[in-house]
Specification:
This protein is α/β, with parallel strands linked by helices and about 210 residues long. Helix content is about 50%, strand content about 25%. It has a 4-stranded mixed beta sheet. Strands 5-6-8-7 form a 4-stranded mixed beta sheet, covered by helices on one side. It starts with a strand and ends with a helix.
Length: about 210
């Protein structure tokens, strides 16, 4: 550092104050830490006492996690007609919920045909109705917007992809455990019935 003084921050984020660089380096050496310049453009520059190796490692882990979450999150698209019947609406809403529970974003698109383009408020009403009905699993990231013959709304999942996968895995494990317990119970009941039948046959022979 080519400055005479720095504003020093301690390892826990505590403000030490403005000190000479020589004193800051001495404190770093005594604490077995590094003196790292974190805000070089400040007057005076801000430096922090830290374990630089640990800091770089944690930063790399966070960056890798952010990339992984970003890569895992997909945008699914679901298309609706303005005059969709109730059965199709419920079916498509079920797909939207499944995508959201899986940790993916969903782009809902209304496709206008012919004179339907003159009634954009009907499309907006349908999109907002759907958003309200799935609010247990989603947050609206982009309000309805129209582009040409289409109007879209984007829903984001309340849970991250990794969390959703972990939850789904636990649900599968719980279902399997319940099925195994039920199978064991049936086999035990079957064995008990056979034993009773065998005992009854033996009694008849006597």
């Amino acid at each position: 550092m080519r400055v005479p003084k720095v504003r020093l921050v301690g390892p826990q984020g505590e403000q030490v104050g403005i000190v000479r660089v020589e004193d800051a380096l001495r404190l770093a050496q005594e604490a077995d830490l590094d003196l790292v310049e974190v805000a070089p453009n400040s007057q005076p520059p801000v430096a922090k006492l830290m374990d630089y190796g640990k800091f770089k490692y944690e930063a790399a882990v966070k960056a890798r996690e952010a990339r992984r979450n970003q890569a895992n999150t997909e945008i699914k698209e679901m298309r609706f007609r303005l005059k969709i019947d109730e059965h199709d609406y419920e079916t498509k809403k079920g797909h939207v919920v499944r995508f959201l529970k899986g940790g993916d974003k969903v782009k809902i698109t209304i496709m206008f045909r012919g004179r339907e383009q003159s009634r954009p408020e009907m499309g907006r009403r349908l999109l907002l109705k759907l958003a309200e009905e799935v609010q247990e699993f989603a947050v609206v990231e982009n309000m309805p917007s129209q582009e040409g013959r289409n109007m879209s709304l984007v829903l984001g999942p309340l849970k991250k992809k990794a969390e959703a996968r972990d939850e789904q895995r636990k649900e599968r494990e719980a279902r399997k455990a319940a099925q195994d317990a039920e199978r064991t119970e049936r086999e035990a009941a079957k064995s008990s019935t056979k034993a009773e039948a065998s005992d009854a046959a033996a009694a008849d022979e006597d």
